[in-house]
User: Fold this.
Amino acid sequence: MSGTSSVGGRGVYEAGDQRNVKDSEKSQAERYKEGQPNSHKADDSKDERSIANKLAREEKRQNESEPISKEARESQADPTLPAKNHGNEPSKGAKIDAEIQQEEEEMLRKKGIK
Assistant:
């Protein structure tokens, strides 16, 4: 086939770059970083994982706890804190939430629960 081509010389088609690697060389070669974390996206429609693998992953995810960001933890303690940290005045809803939270804590202290 290479003899009938009019594009380039024989050396172009007979180079060693298209030859298969020997089995002895495969075991010695450094492997690319396999199995990287987050290499499969759970909601990727083009991901070719089997249904069984997807189901197994969902079972594991049910037992895992979602990581909570620093700002979310702060807002659980004080609803006005995220706005204050960003240099803004807390919203009316955040102020009301803070008041309700204080009232509930006082009621629990009176009952002796907290």
Q: What stands out?
A: The helical segments are 10-13, 23-28, 51-63, 70-77, 81-85, 92-111. The chain has a mean pLDDT of 78. The chain has six helices and no strands. The two ends are 86 Å apart (CA to CA).
